[in-house]
């Protein structure tokens, strides 16, 4: 990306230590990387990022405004296979055709995907961080071998059924039930707001059983299973969102995920997906910031570019601050995940901060673009409306505030 010209480096004082002078001149200031965060990345990190960025530039950006306006994602199966081909599905998982990438590399991929559109990042997050992660961590060896290779290749799309029409933030109240009938399980219930639902070949569905919440691997061609698509959305329009209907869905005994018992299973999957959102939200924010920066340098009013006015510069400076602080926070959490020290409360910290700041950046960018900010010729309004969904799913603002409040005080306010 282009960098603006910087002033000549200041001359070193004659009294400066030789080691200081030997460091050489400072690099030019880059308005697209003002903190020099690229220096934190390895060559492999950059290669992963650049691969995903090129794919999104070529396969999503030329078409996504049309998809968004039409409220559909017509090429989802083809896109899934292409994402599988570049190793973007189940990236941090090992074996079964998965890339075995680092958490930071996965985060960089999420950032680049959401810079194109939140719906595309959601496709990847639900596939990899929810459905595949649940199978990889909690599934039997047979379940992993049956599903993960084809899911990593994008040949089979997965979905994750936890949220219900009447139970979002409180999954413990779910009404979907699984009962024993001989050696089989029979599932009845409804799930709502399920990304990938109507195009999925397999669903990981969570249900109440006599022994608590359990996860089930449900092939979507099982009798009694249906996934009507949800229409009339004003957010995440370039994404497939569905209801899952389970009417007497009969499954064999080995359909249950053996490693997951209780809410800890689905919540750990959500935590993994939230981590991707911490990065992804900054992708949407970056797209809006760059649109505003470019527009401010070209749009003229009162005989000069609006980027030359103080109020516009103040907006750009504030957007740049929050954008790159958010990326730095995401990078820090990624390193902790790679080291095995990342706590769920820290993921809540990142999700709460980064999505909230991303929305503010998008709204500020819209003001820089003026009336043009509402046009789909620019990405700003599309990202702003998408982020309203991102703000809610995988834990609302209030839920993450309470997670942090409990961690800070040691007092549980969820049911207070």
UniProtKB/TrEMBL annotation:
Residues 264-408 form the Acyl-CoA dehydrogenase/oxidase C-terminal domain. Pfam families: Acyl-CoA_dh_1 (PF00441), Acyl-CoA_dh_M (PF02770), Acyl-CoA_dh_N (PF02771). Keywords: FAD, Flavoprotein, Oxidoreductase, Transit peptide. Residues 159-249 form the Acyl-CoA oxidase/dehydrogenase middle domain. Residues 43-155 form the Acyl-CoA dehydrogenase/oxidase N-terminal domain. InterPro entries: Acyl-CoA_Oxase/DH_mid-dom, Acyl-CoA_Oxase/DH_mid-dom_sf, AcylCo_DH-like_C, AcylCo_DH/oxidase_C, AcylCoA_DH/ox_N, AcylCoA_DH/ox_N_sf, AcylCoA_DH/oxidase_NM_dom_sf, Glutaryl-CoA_DH_mitochondrial. Its cofactor is FAD. Residues 1-30 are annotated as: Disordered. Belongs to the acyl-CoA dehydrogenase family. PANTHER family: GLUTARYL-COA DEHYDROGENASE, MITOCHONDRIAL. This is Acyl-CoA dehydrogenase family protein.
């Amino acid at each position: 990306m282009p960098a603006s010209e910087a002033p000549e480096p200041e001359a070193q004082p004659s009294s400066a230590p030789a080691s200081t002078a030997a460091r050489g001149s400072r690099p030019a200031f880059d308005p697209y990387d003002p903190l020099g965060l690229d220096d934190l990345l390895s060559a492999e990190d950059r290669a992963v990022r650049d691969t995903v960025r090129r794919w999104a530039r070529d396969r999503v950006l030329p078409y996504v405004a049309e998809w968004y306006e039409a409220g559909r994602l017509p090429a989802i199966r083809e896109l899934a296979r292409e994402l599988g081909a570049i190793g973007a599905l189940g990236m941090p998982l090992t074996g079964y055709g998965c890339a075995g990438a680092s958490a930071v590399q996965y985060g960089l991929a999420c950032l680049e995907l959401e810079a194109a559109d939140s719906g595309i990042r959601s496709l990847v997050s639900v596939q990899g961080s929810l459905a595949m992660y649940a199978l990889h961590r909690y599934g039997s060896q047979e379940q992993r071998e049956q599903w993960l290779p084809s899911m990593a290749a994008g040949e089979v799309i997965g979905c994750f059924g936890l949220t219900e029409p009447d139970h979002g933030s409180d999954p413990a109240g779910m009404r979907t039930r699984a009962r024993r009938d001989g050696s089989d399980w029979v599932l009845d219930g409804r799930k709502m707001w399920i990304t990938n639902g109507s195009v999925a070949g397999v669903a990981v569905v969570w249900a109440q059983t006599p022994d608590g919440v359990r996860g089930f691997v449900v092939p979507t061609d099982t009798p009694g299973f249906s996934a009507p698509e949800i229409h009339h959305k004003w957010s995440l329009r370039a994404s497939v969102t569905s209801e899952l209907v389970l009417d007497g869905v009969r499954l064999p005994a080995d359909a249950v995920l053996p490693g997951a018992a209780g809410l800890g299973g689905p919540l750990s999957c959500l935590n993994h997906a939230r981590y991707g959102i911490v990065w992804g939200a900054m992708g949407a924010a970056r797209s809006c910031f760059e649109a505003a920066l470019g527009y401010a340098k070209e749009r003229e009013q009162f005989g000069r570019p609006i980027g030359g006015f103080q109020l516009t510069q103040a907006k750009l400076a504030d957007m740049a601050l929050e954008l790159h602080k958010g990326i730095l926070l995401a990078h820090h959490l990624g390193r902790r995940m790679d080291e095995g020290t990342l706590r769920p409360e820290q993921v809540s910290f990142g999700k709460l901060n980064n999505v909230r700041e991303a929305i503010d950046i998008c709204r500020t960018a819209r003001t820089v673009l003026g009336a043009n900010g509402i046009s789909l010729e620019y990405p700003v309004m599309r990202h702003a409306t998408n982020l309203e969904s991102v703000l809610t799913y995988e834990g609302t603002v209030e839920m993450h505030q309470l997670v942090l409040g409990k961690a800070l005080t040691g007092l549980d306010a969820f049911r207070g």
